[in-house]
Amino acid sequence: MTSEPATVDTPLKKLVGEKTAKALAGHLDLHTAGDLIYHFPRRYDERGEHTDIRSLDVGEQVTVLAQVQRTAVRPMRQRRGNLLEVTVGDGSGGVLTLTFFGNQAWRERELRPGRWGLFAGKVTEFRGKRQLNGPEYVLLGEGGDGEAAANEEVEEFAGALIPVYPAAAAVPTWVIARCVRVVLDTFTPPEDPLPAALRASRNLVGIGAALREIHRPSSKEELYRARRRLKWDEAFAVQLTLVQRKHRAAAWPAQARPARAGGLLDAFDARLPYELTPGQQVVGREIAADLATAHPMHRLLQGEVGSGKTVVALRAMLQVVDAGGQAALLAPTEVLAAQHHRGMLDLLGPLAQAGELGAADDATRVELVTGSLGAAARRRALAEVAEGRAGIVLGTHALLYEGVDFHDLGLVVVDEQHRFGVEQRDALRAKADQPPHVLVMTATPIPRTVAMTVYGDLEVSTLSELPQGRSPIASHVVPAAEKPAFLDRAWRRLREEVAAGHQAYVVCPRIGEGPQSDEEAPREDDSGRRPPLAVTEVAPLLAEGPLHGLRIGVLHGRLPADEKDAVMRSFAAGELDVLVATTVVEVGVNVPNATVMIVLDADRFGVSQLHQLRGRVGRGSAAGLCLLVTEAAEGSSARERLDAVASTTDGFKLAELDLEQRREGDVLGATQSGRRSHLRLLSLLRDTDLIRDARAEAIALVEEDPELARHPALAASVAALVDEERAEYLEKG
Predict the structure, then answer these.
(1) Structural contact between residues 625 and 496, judged by C-beta atoms closer than 8 angstroms
(2) Is residue 501 located within the same domain as residue 604?
């Protein structure tokens, strides 16, 4: 260990010793003084303020601040020795049992009633009581033994506010606190990256003070000021990255694709069997204006399930074809790509029949390119694309492969953009001679701050109203464990809809045996619950049981492509009553006659996913019904999530709920890159005003110094907080 001044780059082994440094690196990916100093506390505890033990979820790894209430020693039943049970409370009436196996009488002397401590472990439940088995702990105050020395460090280190860090079983929070204390004693903060004028105008403390106060807060007010400053660093880094990208993209050249009077688009509008909604008309004009410029469009089109995004995208594609170019739509699944193909052929009619009898004068061709095409069909389709006869090309990842060449690619439409990585979008863009226009679509509504932060280099258009003829969807939670009769009633309700001439979906979180697929929920979790229900297991049980006599089909991603297509065609044609499927039906599947969806193990799905799934019903004139079947207990967070989904069809409210329940870093691509999120403090939900202000400052700074040449410390900070991999993720096409 060293007494030399520590900088952000100093290896931890020089400061805290090799053994501790190895544990920090192996369990928490912390290697340098900077890594540790930027490993901020998750929360702060105060003695006398409860941590709400009652809200702890079984299976959760927790650290709680609590007071010992009583201890009891009793013989173990199955083996020799005694069991020590310690009851601790948090001041709110919530209690937790700590269990220690074996003869540990010394712990009884140590864990005396009245002592406060930090207790860390995994929450389990036994006979209705929450407990921690053999938890790690550190006691606060009193005593003169080695443990007390450690807690003196904690108390001196933290004063009244005790930091609780993101920790690991092998590296509890008090070990991290001790290491931070050692590092801070010799730490030299980096040069402040924020320009002095910005710090003054926004009343932000310096970086050195912020880093010290966030770990060793002298008061709640100083802690607030430290957190606000460090949130600014994060928000400003992201916004600078996005504003810089937008600034650079605006200078790229692109082929203008202006609208042409009397062309395909006008002919299509004339044959549409319904009027566009006012929202579709407004968004259509925005996109048409973008396409007519000599710089590439970068626009995000978001809209509720069933709001008519596909028609808006098709009109944009026709404008590009009218201007002599080609348009490609990238879909996440073959089922969705095939459905887009059928739907566009139906909408276009003779306008999509170039070279055939009865085709319109200006007709083009619409080609489908997927991995399951036979060799002859693939050669024919690729020739149509390469020679420019196919103005509209639809496909899956197969569009990205070598050998798929375009005559003049002018527009790329990415459907359900969250299913694709940056590399895939770039691969399609690279097939154009110069940057094409890009339209990315999502049916997952995006809260305002997420749109500003994740999609900050895109123009955003929103479709909020549903086209005429769409029916309301009623949603209900079916508590199968508490009230089995409710599940019986759900199956009877499905049969009633089929008897009335309608169709139904039954959705399961898993396919069945075999390797894990992207469309499946995790099969096991730490709480020891049973595996999620599987399509291949549920379908025969339904056929023999509650749905006996109905025509049942099965659909999942492991089926051969032609079989998937055949099943979807049969269902769309009304030849099947019930489709038992995975989330392969989550997006784009359009069968107006389907009125009921029963989602089994609904608590295994995310909020946005459930909203997407339920959008598959109520697409015709008859009302839709979505039943969310769960064994989650009343009052649990999983049940509350389902109750929220059932209570509203407002996708934007649900998107905010979804954001609350996810780690915020995931929204910014931490999971995409497989790395730890660099956004540790910023909340996209709670820091709306701060993010908006940071964006305004970023726009002003980039206008006067586009590459941050006059702000080298800031440029380095941005590079550290938003590394190149994450910056590419943020680019979004």
Answers:
(1) no
(2) yes
* CA nearest neighbour of 415 among 496, 527, 332: 332
- At 440, which helix (H) or strand (E)? strand 437-442
Q: Please tell me the distance from the alpha carbon of residue 596 to that of residue 580, in angstroms, as a whole number.
A: 12
Quick: pLDDT tens for 251-287: 888 899 999 999 999 999 999 988 898 999 999 999 9
Determine contact, residues 214/230, Cβ cutoff 8 Å. Answer: yes
Question: What is the sign, positive or negative, of the torsion defined by CA atoms of 348, 354, 360, 363?
Answer: positive
Identify whether residues 279 and 386 lie together within a single domain.
yes
User: Collapsing DSSP states into helix, strand and coil, what is residue 580?
Assistant: strand
Start-to-end CA span in the chain (Å): 47
Measured at the CA of 409, the angle between CA 408 and CA 415, to 5 degrees, comes to 160
Q: Which residue has the higher pLDDT, 633 or 423?
A: 633
Q: Is 676 helix (H, G, I), strand (E, B) or coil?
A: coil
E strand spans, 443-511:
459-463, 473-479, 503-507
Q: Yes or no: say if 428 and 400 are a contact pair by the CB < 8 Å rule.
A: yes
User: What range defines the domain where residue 28 resides?
Assistant: 12-188
Q: What is the pLDDT of residues 398-417, one digit of tens each?
A: 887 778 889 999 999 988 75
Q: Which of 441, 463, 485 is the last residue of a domain?
A: 463
Distance CA 116, CA 64 (A): 10
Q: Is the distance from CB of 602 to CB of 628 less than 8 angstroms?
A: yes
Q: Are residues 342 and 282 in the same domain?
A: yes
Q: Is residue 215 located within the same domain as residue 280?
A: no
Give the list of residues 6+ apart from residue 285 with CB closer than 8 angstroms, or none: none
Spatial distance between the Cα atoms of 574 and 626, rounded to a whole number of angstroms: 20
The amino acid at residue 516 is Q
Q: Is 614 exposed, middle or buried (0-12, 13-18, 19+ CB in 10 A)?
A: buried
For residues 493 and 573, state if they share a domain: yes
Q: Strands, E, within 631-720: which ranges?
A: none
**Could you give the CA distance from residue 615 to residue 341 in angstroms, rounded to a whole number?**
20
Instruction: Please name which of 251, 421, 219 lies closest in space to residue 330, comparing C-alpha atoms.
Output: 421
Number of Cα atoms under 13 Å in the Cβ half of residue 625: 18
Q: Residue 223 and residue 221: Cα distance in Å, rounded?
A: 5
Residue 141 belongs to some domain of the structure: yes
Q: Which pair of structure tokens corresponds to residue 393?
A: 């090309």
Q: Are residues 537 and 628 in the same domain?
A: yes
> Which tens digit of pLDDT belongs to each residue from 63-83?
788 889 988 888 877 677 788
Query: How many domains are there within the chain?
Result: 4
> Is residue 352 a contact partner of residue 345, using CB atoms and an 8 Å limit?
yes
Q: Are residues 351 and 418 in the same domain?
A: yes
Q: What CATH number does the domain containing 432 carry?
A: 3.40.50.300
Q: How far apart are CA 193 and CA 206, in angstroms?
A: 9
pLDDT in tens, 22-35: 999 999 999 999 99
pTM: 0.65
Give me the torsion for CA of 135, 138, 142, 145, rounded to 10°: 100
The answer to whether the CB of 704 falls within 8 A of the CB of 245 is no
Among 237, 190, 194, residue whose Cα is nearest residue 8:
190
42 and 153 co-located in one domain: yes
Mean pLDDT (the chain, rounded): 83
Residue 21 tokens read as: 């440094």
Q: Is the separation of the CB atoms in 414 and 441 below 8 Å?
A: yes
CA torsion, ordered 136, 139, 143, 147, to nearest 10 deg: 40
